[in-house]
Specification:
Distance between the termini: 42 Å
Structural class: alpha+beta
Shape: globular
Helix content: 25-40%
Largest sheet: 6 strands, antiparallel
Number of strands: 12
Strand order of the largest sheet: 8-7-6-5-10-11
Number of helices: 9
Order of helices and strands: HHHHHEEEHHEEEEEEHEEEH
Radius of gyration: 19 Å
Length: 294
């Protein structure tokens, strides 16, 4: 109820209020310097219609296919339906993943590791509740505001047998104007979630706390990690900033998602100087409205 009471507030006022409460300081939208400030500026003023396609978990597949000229990096799609009741569970393998096309923050994913143990009526009820959540009412993340239709995708369950919990290592490339500058890796997200930062030369940067604790040890990177760079840069080149998420499963590179507002910009970074360092790479554009690239 409180969220809807705040809905009438203009984006600028709402974000200034949230930033003050969550980050503990005044938000500078006139001359943003910090990375977290520029994320708020992005929400307020940057309007690229391509962002609407990229935040849709189904429509982004066409974007990836078009930009890369191939669909080889896309996960296998089993089904696309309008309602959870329409999912054909009988035709699905024993393991699969269900998600809504308009979800964000990773809270719209149902991982099924054993179909025989799945309570289908409960699963249908849960997934349908995720549809049309309109989380942007509070976050003001414009790219999620334009979803025309909340649908449901069912995809292949990906796992990494080299990890005890089979969770995938998630490689997240921070790209500014189509150039990769930093990458972080998320590991053990279901047990002991830690994060490891690397620079563009893949040199480990210890001690960066960014939403989740920094790993005490360096994560070993896949042998073909450099092959991921041109993929990330190509997918990000239409935007001043984009985070490109990729998986690398024993050498197989798989597209995850494109994110424009990491953590919604409501997080404090340790050390604080790294917030400025990321912001330094983000060159603000003069035009706040742009048209999609042909």
């Amino acid at each position: 109820m409180a969220a809807w009471m705040l809905y009438p507030l203009p984006d600028k006022q709402m974000l200034q209020l949230e930033y003050r409460i969550k980050n503990g300081r005044r938000l500078n939208l006139t001359n943003p310097v910090r990375f977290t400030e520029k994320i708020q500026w992005y929400k307020c003023y940057y309007r690229n219609p391509l962002m609407l396609q990229c935040t849709d978990k189904y429509q982004v597949r066409e974007y990836v296919n078009r930009k890369l000229g191939t669909g080889q990096y896309l996960n296998n799609l089993y089904q696309l339906v309008d309602r959870a009741e329409d999912i054909d569970f009988d035709s699905l393998p024993e393991q699969f993943v269900i998600k809504t096309t308009d979800g964000s923050s990773g809270d719209n994913v149902l991982i099924v590791k054993n179909k025989q143990e799945l309570d289908i009526p409960q699963a249908i009820k849960k997934v349908n509740k995720w549809r049309n959540r309109r989380n942007y009412v509070i976050s003001r993340e414009w790219a999620y505001r334009g979803a025309g239709k909340s649908q449901i995708v069912v995809e292949q369950y990906l796992k990494d047998s080299s990890n005890a919990d089979e969770a995938l290592n998630d490689y997240k490339f921070l790209c500014f104007n189509g150039k990769f500058q930093y990458m972080w890796v998320d590991k053990d997200r279901y047990t002991n979630h830690t994060r490891c930062f690397y620079d563009r030369d893949f040199k480990w940067i210890p001690g960066i706390d960014f939403e989740y604790p920094a790993s005490a040890t360096e994560f070993p990177l896949p042998d073909n990690v450099t092959d991921m760079v041109p993929i990330a840069e190509k997918l990000s080149e239409d935007f001043p900033f984009a985070r490109i998420d990729l998986y690398n499963i024993q050498g197989r590179i798989v597209f995850g998602e494109i994110t424009f507002y990491p953590g919604s910009g409501f997080h404090n970074t340790t050390p604080d100087s790294f917030d400025f360092e990321l912001g330094r790479h983000w060159k603000m554009c003069n035009n706040t409205t742009t048209s999609p690239t042909p």
